[in-house]
Each structure stands twice: as C-alpha cells, then as structure tokens.
Amino acid sequence: MKPLILASQSPRRKQLLEWAAIPFTVMVSDVEELFLPTLPKEEVPVFIATKKARAVQSKCSSDAIVLAADTIVLLQEKILAKPVHREEAISMLLSLSGVTHQVITGVILAQGDREVSFSQTTSVTFHPLSLAQIEYYVDHYKPYDKAGGYAIQEWIGVVGIESIEGDFYNVMGLPVSRVIHHLQQFQ
Question: Which pLDDT does position 29 carry in this prediction?
C-alpha cells in the first residue's frame, strides 16, 4: 500500500483511521481555515480540505497519498465554526437545540497531480436542550476544537441527539467507508 498521510491534527480523524486499520502518518498543515464569503456554503469544507492537502503535499514525496478533511456545521445557511470561548459554545448549542442541522465534511485525496474530492452531508436533530445541560457539556467537555461546538460521540450526543440521517462517522469528522472506497482507486 502506498503511504497515506493524514493532513490533520484532529484526534477524531486519527481515531477513525485507526479503527479502520489503515496505516498512516500525520503531517499537520498550518493553513488558516478562511474562505470567500461568496463561496457556496456546501463547498466550503472541500475548499478548506484542498488547501490543507496542497500545503502538506508540497512537503512529501510524490508517491504519498495525502488525505485532508474539513467539517462544518450548517444551520439555516449559517456556518457554525469552532467556538472561541464558553459563551460562544453555549450560544451555538442553544441555536441547535430542538432543530435539525447539517454536518458537511469535505474530503480530498491527493497524490501527485491526481486528486479526488467529495463532500458528505449528514442531518442531525437535537432534542430541546436545557441551559443546564448545555452548560454541563461545555464545562465538562470543552468543545472548542469542534465545529458547531459539539462532538456526537461525547455526552451531548448520547443524551441530546434525537435523530441522525446519514453517516454517523461523518459527524465525527470523516466518512471513513467512503474514504476507503476512494483510497482503493489509488492502489
């Protein structure tokens, strides 16, 4: 198998690849997750993932396959990024309480001049959450490195999610089965 490089510092993406028994190394890109406001919201994750992949690709051998991903939470055409502080995390979770939102992960696999990119969307609906529940989660789990201010595999997902339509692992940050399908095309 050709060497796989994960262009991400996300512990969740690392964990998902380990669960899938895919050998890889990590090379973090220091790309700012910026985009033009005119870019359609659904295209933002692939755009940012592509920037990450290209930054890492320039530092590795041409036979290596670079895997980069970016995840956004989209609520009524508004992107909920990673919260900066406690109040912002609480505000995000209050806005998600009792409603459905989309989690979109953009993925790119790049090797030399060859690139395959795609996005995966999963709809998530939270039960109505109390302020006490939200504060408990934020104070105990510190979700500041998570789009939308939450992680589905943590307490808030276990007690707060009413339904999910789509790939659970996509909400964690990487639609692994789809990544594996595309990786097979590189071998």
Answer: 82
